Request: fold
Amino acid sequence: MIWLPLLLAAARNVPALPADIPADSTRFTVLMMGQPAGQQALWTTPDGKLHAFFQFNDRGRGPKTYSTFSLDKDGVAAAVDLEGNEYFKAPVSERHSTRRACRRR
Reply:
């Protein structure tokens, strides 16, 4: 019985998914020490972009990010945009793109 309050407290620490995450997204649960601590959601939009949302709560800390991947005709990431906050809540805004993709075959 001593574990029940601890489990209930851990469940309350899981942040809610934001309302802008599509209901048909593929969702994953992030575990810390075997307990739910956050989520990841993946979805695509009609323009062919892959979107990812990721967050977890570690005693009030933890990242919360939105990523968008633009894929080339082979399904390789041609551009990545990431917005949100990092573990200590500092803002994060990163961009990466390839103009000429060089891949070895």
The chain has one helix and six strands. The chain has one domain: 3-97.
